[in-house]
Amino acid sequence: DAGVIQSPRHEVTEMGQEVTLRCKPISGHNSLFWYRQTMMRGLELLIYFNNNVPIDDSGMPEDRFSAKMPNASFSTLKIQPSEPRDSAVYFCASSSSSRVDGYTFGSGTRLTVV
Amino acid sequence: LAKTTQPISMDSYEGQEVNITCSHNNIATNDYITWYQQFPSQGPRFIIQGYKTKVTNEVASLFIPADRKSSTLSLPRVSLSDTAVYYCLLYNQAGTALIFGKGTTLSVSS
């Protein structure tokens, strides 16, 4: 099992540009979570999906952020337009419905907006 | 979801046992206690979870008293590689997502 796969690992973009982060959850996991981590705010939940359906997006900071999960094996987090304050590490995690083994996190995408 | 409180930081030396205590006074009947570990530049990693009494795995032990208002993560004989942030969280199987606090930064030195 390759675990949760995120791409890209690093992204540097200019302010105003569109950024798309990608996540492939573990096969068989039916819940997917997007988190953002900064030194100031720690690890924040942005949105999560159960069976490809968004359940809670109250953590999405602004309308500039959007997330989709078109199928059980793929999700995207898009920022349009990006701003310097969006610079952070974005983690994707997945879990099964029983959550006996907890969440499995990906390695994260380090986003820098200049 | 009930809030948890844990020390901001702890220091230890190699070979010692480390106990990190977490308070969750308002834990609900259907809440489980779960702990995660995060190394720099990596995502959090699930360590252990429990509902009551004691749980042990190859990494750590989790002690939960009868009233469940606190829990203690025990790391036996820590090494330098155990330096990380440790998060105590509550979750229920109703489907709500994990909400991470600041965690406890454990620093192990030689």
Task: Briefly note the structural class of the backbone of chain B.
Answer: mainly beta
**Percent of residues in beta strands of chain B:** over 45%
Overall number of strands of chain B = 9
Instruction: Report how far the terminal alpha carbons of chain A are from each other.
Output: 36 Å
- Percentage beta strand of chain A: over 45%
Major sheet: arrangement of strands of chain B: 1-9-8-3-4
The secondary structure category of chain A is: mainly beta
Radius of gyration of chain B: 13 Å
| Largest sheet properties of chain B | 5 strands, mixed
Q: How many distinct helices of chain A?
A: 0
- How can the largest sheet of chain A be summarized? 7 strands, mixed
Shape of chain B: globular
Q: How many individual β-strands of chain A?
A: 11
Mean pLDDT of chain A, to the nearest integer, reads 94
Q: For the record, give the distance between the C-alpha atoms at the N and C termini of chain B, rounded to a whole number.
A: 38 Å
Mean pLDDT of chain B: 93
In terms of per-residue confidence, which ranges of chain A show pLDDT below 50 for 5 or more consecutive residues? none
Helix content of chain A: under 10%
Your description of this structure?
- The complex is a heterodimer of chains A (114) and B (110).
- By secondary structure, chain A is mainly β.
- Chain A has no helices and eleven strands.
- The mean pLDDT of chain A is 94.
- The N and C termini of chain A lie far apart (36 Å).
- Chain B contains no helices and nine strands.
- The A-B interface holds A 4, 31, 33, 35, 42-45, 48, 50, 55-56, 91, 93, 98-99, 101-108 and B 34, 36, 41-46, 49, 87, 91, 93, 95-103.
Task: Describe what is shown at a glance.
The complex is a heterodimer of chains A (114) and B (110). Chain A is mainly beta.
Task: Please outline the helices and strands.
The complex is a heterodimer of chains A (114) and B (110).
Chain A: E1 5-7, E2 10-13, E3 19-24, E4 31-38, E5 42-50, E6 53-56, E7 65-71, E8 74-79, E9 88-95, E10 104-105, E11 109-113
Parallel strand pairs in A: 2-11
Antiparallel strand pairs in A: 1-3, 3-8, 4-5, 4-9, 5-6, 7-8, 9-10, 9-11
Chain B: E1 9-13, E2 18-23, E3 32-38, E4 45-50, E5 53-56, E6 61-64, E7 70-75, E8 84-91, E9 104-109
Parallel strand pairs in B: 1-9
Antiparallel strand pairs in B: 2-7, 3-4, 3-8, 5-6, 6-7, 8-9
